[in-house]
Each structure stands twice: as C-alpha cells, then as structure tokens.
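In the design runs reported in the main text, the only information available to the sequence generator was the tokenized backbone. The following block is the verbatim input for one such run; it is reproduced so that readers can re-run the procedure and compare outputs position by position.
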C-alpha cells in the first residue's frame, strides 16, 4: 500500500482519488504525532467499502457461516457450491 503525507496527497488530490477508485488500490495518509505515534487514515474505493459492508452484514447475521458450512459439506453430486 502506498503511504503518503497529507501534503503529498493534497498536491495531486484528483489523480490520487481517481487511481484509488479506478484501480481499487488503498492509500495510507500518514500523520506523525509529537509522541512519535504514526497516526493517519486509509483511503479506499467506494467499491471496496461496499464489499466490506456486505461482508460485515453477512458475518453479523450468521449468513457467512451458513455459506461456509454448506461449501464445506457440498459434494459433486449436489448442485450447490460445485467447483466449475
């Protein structure tokens, strides 16, 4: 993941966010504190944010566990979750 200072991110803001959106590549904007702790943010694409939200929903509702259980117990005799 590319790490940038706020100044460098701001200098080329439009191209930075365009690259994040088009290539789905996150970027870290780092901000040093006086205490020496590296604080900052990570900028991700909307597509990645939506994927993370959907995965979180599936985990919270237990749906993801059901899907994984069915995948583990599937066989080639069944139509569900067969390798293509």
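Verbatim output:
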């Amino acid at each position: 993941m590319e790490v940038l200072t706020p100044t460098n991110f701001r200098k080329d803001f439009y191209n930075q966010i365009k690259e994040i959106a088009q290539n789905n590549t996150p970027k870290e904007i780092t901000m040093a504190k006086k205490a020496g702790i590296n604080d900052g943010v990570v900028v991700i694409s909307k597509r990645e944010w939506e994927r993370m939200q959907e995965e979180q929903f599936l985990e919270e509702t237990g749906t993801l566990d059901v899907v994984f259980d069915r995948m583990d117990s599937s066989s080639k005799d069944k139509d569900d979750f067969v390798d293509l």
